[in-house]
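Protein Record: Sequence and Backbone Structure Tokens
======================================================
Tokens: labelled as protein backbone structure tokens, with as many entries as the chain has residues.
Task: work out the structure tokens from the sequence, keeping to the layout shown below.
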Amino acid sequence: MFYRILKGNAETIKIISKLLLMVTVCLVTVILLFCAAAFAISNIDFTYESLPVIIASILSIASAFDGFVISKIFKKNGLFWGVFAGAVIFAFIFIISLKSGTFNVTSDFFTKMVICIIAGAIGGITGVNVN
């Protein structure tokens, strides 16, 4: 069935390949920012209480940046693409926490979800409206 959907439709293949590229860009952005934060944390004296703020900052920066870049690629529907970018980043964090066995449904979980989606939406809207 999937083959019949894609058969002879170059536009569908182009859209799917763009989406896969965007998901990859989102994940690479998050990984790079977490690596930079890990490097900074290991070299500078941080307290344990500052880690949630650092994580929330990384998620918001990555979501806003990815929403901005993806909406610049498509040049329309910035809100949708920004929310998409935030959802992809949150899904990545969710899957990693499930695999590592550290998943807990707390208020922090929902806060991260809201941060990712709102920051992605803001980045997407900004990306469409900036020339």
Residues 10-43 form the longest helix (34 residues). The chain has five helices and no strands. Residues 93 and 99 are 10 Å apart (CA to CA). The helical segments are 2-6, 10-43, 51-74, 78-100, 107-129.
